[in-house]
Amino acid sequence: MSTAPRKRTRAASVPPFAKILRRHLGCDPASIAIVGDSFPLRAIGDLQLAVDDWLRVPGRRREMVGVVTDRHVVRLGALASPPPSERKHGWAADVGPVEYSAVPLADGGSLASVERGLLLLSDGDARLAILVAGPCGEPYIRQVRVEVGAATQPESERFLQQLRDGMRRRSIFRGRSLSIGADRQGEMEVRFQALPKVAREDVILPPGVLERIERNTVRFTHHAEALHAMGRHLKRGLLLYGPPGTGKTFSAMFLASQMPDRTVLMVTGRAVGLIEQVAVMARQLAPATVVFEDVDLIAEDRRTTQNACATPVMFELLNAMDGLAEDADVLFVLTTNRPEVLEPVLAARPGRVDQAIEIPLPDEACRDRLIARYGEGMRLALTDHAAVIARTAGTSAAFIKELLRRAALIAADASPGAASPEVNDGHVRDAMQEMLVDGGSMTRTLLGVAGAGA
Questions:
Q1: What distances in angstroms separate CA 368 from CA 152, 210, 373, one per listed residue?
Q2: CA distance 170 to 221
Q3: What pLDDT, in 10s, does the model give residues 160-178?
Q4: Measured between alpha carbons, how far is 218 from 262 in angstroms, rounded to an integer?
Q5: pLDDT by residue (tens digit) across 185-233?
Q6: In CATH terms, is domain 177-358 a member of 3.40.50.300?
Q7: What is the CB-side half-sphere exposure of residue 217 using CA atoms within 13 A?
Q8: Rounded-to-integer distance, Cα 437 and Cα 430, Å
Q9: What is the CATH number of domain 364-446?
Q10: What sign results for the dihedral spanned by CA atoms 299, 302, 303, 305?
């Protein structure tokens, strides 16, 4: 919310905010102790919730005063004791309406959060003044500044730390699924992402594979307290590798469903230069799961990152993983179609990834289950089921899903007007011809067919 520039108020004997602060704090505003901190703009909702949480204690009160100014930067010290030039030409800030920002929430609603205003807090005899100074329409300001003023420095520092703790504890992002990207200026962009609920029976993998994934993730979370008590570290890295379309991302979605109390950070390609910020956010929102898809692309990326010049971004990721405290309950899930690209990098930084698990192409039993799974809701009438299973050898789960979708389309074309046409062997055979032969090698590659590029 922006504020139109205003002319400075005429000089008066007492600056307007100095008078307000003297009345509230009960001391000379020029002598108050001020401490401050800057937070990412995305944390403005967390700040609002932290203040609201503090006010829930009986006896605590809040008064809010708006700050109107044509200056881009507002400081509590300047409000309390304006420079001499303002005494001559007029005060740069005046009392006005409190400005709010509507912060989107995971449920589709919004949280009205103070973006610019002076909060006068009371807790018994204790008095505090909190200045919240956000961008208020200035696009190049990407942070919100919070300054705390009190009669003594320990009081100011103590409350600012309470705010930091409350923001971490009450964050609007905690326990949510988030998509982490970057905007055009390269700044971190965080959006809520609705992930599908994946049941265990929906994950179709060869025997033992899902159990190994669970043991290195779900079981760790289940026994986190016991492991911590035994001095075992909680941070861990899991690499899922295998051909395209075999279910690596789907397995990551399954883990998110099985550990609903964890914050999930899905890192997109544009955020690879923000790895350190992602790691910091994961630590603050722990327990957390960070998912990097197609991490082989990161391994080959030698762009300049925030703290290194021409260093492979994969090293930045591994260093960020290593930099987390041993007791940080953060799980990194990395996926790749090309493990051979990653192996030299991982060998140069041993210990960051604790377990690598192959997600192979589905075997005969898995293909049978996949046909049944993706055939749900269809009138599937196959007279030679075994032939379909045999013909799909070397294909991925993604291929089988698309195969049945194409067969359903062909059946619908053959029976115009039918509400639910029957899908028979011929429809499946035609769909397979279209995908394996007519579509060429590129289609086969896109659908994860073994040896498609040969």
A1: 72, 17, 9
A2: 21
A3: 999 999 999 999 999 999 9
A4: 11
A5: 788 899 999 999 999 999 999 999 999 999 999 998 888 888 888 888 7
A6: yes
A7: 33
A8: 10
A9: 1.10.8.60
A10: positive
